[in-house]
Design goal:
single chain, mainly alpha
């Protein structure tokens, strides 16, 4: 992505840390959480790789089409999983956003021009994705607050703590951080 190096490296670190935690969450005993964590780990590491500042590393020409293929496959998997429940639709939108960003970067001249869309203003797809992810961040942040209170309340009532990979507030915090990273990446597109 394009932008200053320091915020770019912070974005890389955030996405890589989120991807690493999601890999650890794949050790959960709950199958649905393992599947979700796998997709989120792919998103986290993919976003980290895509966010490396262009001044430091310009990926080869084949990298952007490769990103599009990988995240296109992830979008198809999320579409297939969406038939079991609507919570997979967010993964579909996220993977589709990654495909969109990869296609835009592949089409940009030299992949180092800061405004690949060529026109004035924000392209409609970028704007729609920005609105979606900004709304997602707000909703995910609001959902995170009660989850922390509920988890501490369960422990105070004598219940046992869930395994660290099964804690819903940590999974929500991961999703929130990836949503914020997606907003930042879309803003620099």
């Amino acid at each position: 992505m394009h932008g200053p190096a320091s915020p770019g490296w912070l974005l890389v670190a955030l996405c890589a840390a989120t991807g690493a935690y999601c890999l650890l969450r794949m050790r959960s005993t709950v199958e649905e959480q393992r599947r979700a964590a796998g997709g989120e780990a792919l998103m986290g590491f993919g976003m980290a790789a895509m966010a490396v500042p262009a001044a430091v590393f310009s990926p080869p020409a084949w990298a952007w089409p490769a990103y599009a293929v990988v995240f296109g496959a992830a979008a198809l998997r999320a579409l297939w999983a969406a038939r079991t429940g609507p919570h997979h639709l967010h993964h579909l939108v996220g993977a589709s956003a990654m495909v969109y960003m990869a296609v835009v970067m592949a089409a940009s001249p030299g992949a180092s021009h800061p405004h690949a869309h060529g026109g004035a203003g924000i392209p409609p797809v970028t704007g729609a994705l920005l609105l979606y992810f900004a709304g997602y961040v707000l909703v995910a942040g609001a959902r995170l607050v009660p989850a922390v209170g509920a988890a501490t309340g369960a422990l105070a009532g004598g219940g046992t703590a869930p395994a660290w990979g099964d804690r819903p507030e940590l999974a929500r915090a991961c999703r929130l951080s990836m949503g914020m990273a997606m907003v930042a990446m879309l803003l620099t597109l």
